[in-house]
Write a structure and sequence with these properties.
The protein is an alpha/beta fold. It has a four-stranded parallel sheet with strand order 2-1-3-4. Helix 1 links the parallel strand 1 and strand 2. The longest helix has 20 residues.
Length: 149
């Protein structure tokens, strides 16, 4: 199984989902069963590390975010079994990029995997101040746990 996490720039939400999922898969002994990556709709931040504030908040919870930003490519639709967008805009953009019906069927919503938190999207943390980064971590921890469990 191969999962791709997607947000707008791949420097906050999707890279954090990747870091949380990597940690969870190691703890569950599934790192050789499920492959993961993350990407952004835009290439604006290509090659950059995740946002420094996001890395700082994630580090407090034990996550080391080292992924380098990259844009979604047409090849991703061939390689990945599941492509999870963080919000409606990401999902619509992914649908617009999808080359065929099979690719459309791979696109899903990250928050559909939440077990205890009720959310219809993973919000962009920049609009919530310090609490926004913590909220993103809470939602992604819940959703990643639901995706594995």
């Amino acid at each position: 199984m191969k999962i791709l996490f997607v947000c707008l720039g791949n420097i906050c939400r999707s890279s954090t989902a990747q870091g949380i999922m990597e940690d969870l898969l190691k703890k569950e002994g599934l790192e050789n069963v499920i492959e993961i990556d993350s990407a952004g709709i835009l290439s604006y931040h290509q090659g950059e590390l995740p946002d420094s504030q996001m890395r700082q908040h994630a580090a407090r919870r034990g996550y080391d975010l080292t992924h380098r930003s990259r844009p979604v490519s047409s090849r991703d639709f061939e390689e990945f079994d599941l492509i999870l967008g963080m919000d409606d805009r990401n999902i619509q953009d992914l649908k617009n990029l999808a080359p065929d019906v099979d690719s459309l069927n791979k696109i899903g919503r990250m928050t559909d995997y939440c077990r205890t938190i009720i959310a219809d999207h993973v919000p962009d943390p920049y609009y919530g101040g310090v609490s926004g980064f913590e909220q993103v971590l809470d939602i992604l921890e819940d959703a990643c746990g639901g995706a594995v469990g």
